[in-house]
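chain below, 289 aa
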Amino acid sequence: MGIHGTADPPPPARDLRPARPGRSRQMTPIQTDALVTEVAADGPYQLVRLQAPALATRVQPGQFVTADPSSLRASLGGALRHPLLPATVRAEGLDLLLPPAHPAAALAAGQRVNLLGPLGKPLRLPHPPARLLLVADGQHLPALLPAAHRALANGCPVALLLSVPTAAALYPPSRLPPALEIHLVTADGSAGHDGSLLDLLTGSGEAPLLLTWADRILLATDPVLYPALAEATRAARLSPSPDFAQALLLPTIVCGVGACRGCAVPTRRGYRRACTDGPFFDLLEVEAE
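prediction:
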């Protein structure tokens, strides 16, 4: 069960820069103090529920926020802001699903944490009846859940190819959208297919067909796998459109607003900044370092 805070509501949010003419206000980053209202175990994750209504109305699938650790060093540690990708965006705030070892998983109900966001570019999701394929490992699955919910709500068929080490590390399927088609692979064969994502996508069977079934692919897994996943995509699709496959790349975030280039990601079109151009990039454009 969660632990509910009883502190007063957070103070009003503060705009970091004025909205530009013709620019949606939802895209303007704001700084706001969020209240942690609940902390609870949720399958293999730690659920951290944040009350931040001014921010929640702005965050789109694919965007993220950063948390300021300056007043919470005991919980978050370090001097840099921590990037956080919401698993759920509610009218009153954000839900995070974090690995237990994540610094923000140590937050407690009643604490306040300063958030900056939304940062990054919203995902380019397909329009119905286009089909969306999600490829993820257990650690990164929460980053794709907002896109899954949005695409399903829009009427798009969505399939998930999920890799976890063992069945015990699996997020309960009952907690995922009922309309989501799930293809599971475990390293020890304890559930679903036996092997890895690469084994599944480059072998025989139904999984490789998902690459030809999909009209758009979103990937969130260990970036070490991205070159091989890009090759599997090229083998399955002769001439994929730009952004056909979008992959999560979220390095260390320093400033969060594109000023320092500390989060540069190498692509075939030069370096791009994860905080303003990402955190999802065209898989077929990303260059291995």
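The CA atoms of residues 55 and 180 lie 27 Å apart. Confidence is low (pLDDT under 50) at residues 1-26.
thats it, cya
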